[in-house]
Amino acid sequence: MELLQEKSGLEAYLVADHVIDHHHPVVRATAGRLRDQAPGPYDYAEAAFEFVRDTIPHSYDSGDLRVTWRASDVLAGRTGICYAKAHALAALLRAHGIPTGLCYQRLADDDGSDPVVHGLIAMWLPESGRWARQDPRGNKAGVNAQFSLNEERLAWVPRPEYGESDYPILYAAPAPPVLKALLEAVDRPHLSRLLPTAL
């Protein structure tokens, strides 16, 4: 799928803000440790992806009631849903100078009911010369997302027959309905009632 940049150029996909706060000491320290282990851009990107995917449990899987949304809080608290984990990975990648955007899918149950917007990221590395989507949601039974710059290996492939789809827009900052839900939720059960069903 061709991703359409919300902002022209790559600079907007390197910015630090109040969500993707890669200027924060927690983000910088985590990025520094990963950089020591994997100094090259490709190796660093893969290490950052695996760190977020594997060491920060998805709060629905773990039962954690906390709602995190700021990248530094996700890294410090080691919890978050897909959007939050995407924010954390975007911050780690941007901290290493790798342009990173936020992208989304619309997913549903096996009968097409209960649609929800799912969050992931896309990164730009010279090795690929294009945007490559990655899904740091976290693996479990039936979910096996892997780092790849060529063939996508995401958690889910949308099924159009169930109303599922990929959104082509590559956001420099979180999509407003996503951030609104995260900011308004008092805990994870409340968040589940606020999640956007479409963008």
TrEMBL record:
<feature type="domain" description="Transglutaminase-like">
    <location>
        <begin position="29"/>
        <end position="136"/>
    </location>
</feature>
<dbReference type="InterPro" id="IPR002931">
    <property type="entry name" value="Transglutaminase-like"/>
</dbReference>
<dbReference type="InterPro" id="IPR038765">
    <property type="entry name" value="Papain-like_cys_pep_sf"/>
</dbReference>
<protein>
    <submittedName>
        <fullName>Transglutaminase family protein</fullName>
    </submittedName>
</protein>
<dbReference type="Pfam" id="PF01841">
    <property type="entry name" value="Transglut_core"/>
</dbReference>
